[in-house]
Design goal:
Blueprint: E1 6-10, E2 12-13, E3 17-20, E4 22-30, H1 38-45, E5 50-55, E6 60-62, E7 67-69, E8 78-81, H2 84-92
Parallel strand pairs: 3-8
Antiparallel strand pairs: 1-4, 1-7, 2-3, 4-5, 5-6
Length: 109
């Protein structure tokens, strides 16, 4: 993947629904400052770079927070937009154990 390539992000996908942060452009690799989730925690702890995606609607999401790849059609699946700031707030407060994005999964030590 080259810097500037168009990408689609996927947070969750199943047979009927795709949850996405939307489309954007691949912007290289960087330490995922501000990213959340188990993979982000590991990347930050170990100072590992993660793919950086500039979203069309504004903001940056990292590869350690979602799946991404070239834009594709999702066919008959319902597409739901996830709001990055809301998802990050949820991920940052998972002590509540359940919520819109599913059951709490504790990161490995």
């Amino acid at each position: 993947m080259e810097i500037g390539d168009r990408v689609t992000t996927i947070l969750n996908i199943n047979d009927t629904t795709v949850e996405t942060f939307g489309e954007g452009v691949f912007d290289g690799y960087s330490i995922p400052e501000g990213a959340v989730g188990c993979k982000a925690e590991l990347a930050l702890k170990n100072k590992c770079e993660s793919p950086r995606i500039k979203l069309d609607q504004g903001g940056v999401v990292f590869g350690c927070e979602c799946w991404f790849g070239p834009p594709v059609s999702f066919g008959e699946r319902k597409v739901e937009k996830a709001i990055l700031s809301e998802w990050r707030a949820f991920e940052s407060h998972k002590h509540e154990h359940t919520g819109k994005w599913g059951e709490y999964q504790q990161c490995a030590p």
